Amino acid sequence: MNKIYFVGAGPGDPDLITVKGLKLLEQADIIIYTDSLVSAELTKKANKDAQIVKSSGMILEDMVELMAKGSRDGKKVVRLHTGDPSVYGAIYEQIELLKKEGVQSEVVPGVSSVFAAAAAVGAELTIPELTQTVILTRADGRTPVPEREKLSSLAAHHATLAIFLSATLAEKVSEELLGAGWDKETPVAIVQKATHPDQLIVHTTVESLPEAMRENNIKSTAMILAGNALNPSRIHHEQRSKLYDKEFTHGFRKGVK
To answer: Which of 87, 175, 195, 214 would give a disulfide with 13, using CB separation of 3.0 to 4.6 Å?
Structure first.
């Protein structure tokens, strides 16, 4: 019985899959992929005899049954997820049901859309003395969040926020950040379909976020990055990393005054 591989396909660009993920894809006998999000170009990397299954029309039990049967038949099965499977990947319930079937699995990480979005706008999300924390979260919508994890509570830290799955909740996002004391001019970068050919980048502010979403007709597949790290003009010389400072001594270099 073979184990199941949950592989992160990356954010969109087929070249951003990991080397390990690509090798598994090329070796797989069965590939079940999230066709609503994962580039079909990746499935062209599969061997010509592989069974390729689109999962957008399937329910959880159908996917698990197909994976478990493939495993029992000695097939190498790859479940191809968008981004990194461990962040909003809905893999937990698949893995638990597979365990009940006696099937083991392995998760192969991928490039998350949060990092693809940061790369697209050329931003470093952690700036010394400005913010050293990135919070990955979502607004409270059809899928609720725990009370202690409401956006307004997390925003109180004034760290960089990476807000997933909230393109239709821009009004709520803006209101909660402002309610948590954020300056209305705090920079926001919206990246829709990061690394896809039709990627769209919109720079705005916390106050103007809802308007920017409406004007650009952004309703899905968008990462919202918010915080002062998104605006280079707010980053001062003193906030540079000490790692490359000529006066900073570490294990590989002695600083010079």
So the answer is: 195
- What's the CA gap between 108 and 104, in Å, rounded? 14
- What does each of the 257 residues of the chain score in pLDDT, given as a tens digit? 789 999 999 999 999 999 999 999 999 999 999 888 888 889 998 988 999 999 989 999 999 999 999 999 999 999 999 999 999 999 999 999 999 999 999 999 999 999 999 999 999 999 888 889 999 999 998 888 999 999 999 999 999 999 999 999 999 999 999 999 999 999 999 999 999 999 999 999 999 999 999 999 999 999 999 999 998 666 554 556 655 565 555 666 666 66
Helix (H, G, I), strand (E, B) or coil at 79: strand
CA pair distance 54, 245, nearest whole angstrom: 51
User: In angstroms, how far apart are the furthest CA atoms of the chain?
Assistant: 67
Nearest to 180 by CA among 198, 159, 158, 212: 158
Beta-bridge mates of residue 6? 79, 107
Residue 86 token pair: 């461990």
Residue 90 per-residue DSSP state: -
CA-CA distances (angstroms) from residue 21 to 49, 83, 158?
Answer: 18, 12, 35
Task: Show the domains of the chain with their CATH numbers.
Answer: 4-108 (3.40.1010.10), 113-237 (3.30.950.10)
User: Can you say whether the dihedral through the CA atoms of 189, 193, 196, 200 is positive or negative?
Assistant: negative
Nearest Cα residue to 111 out of 28, 44, 12: 12
d(CA 151, CA 257): 44
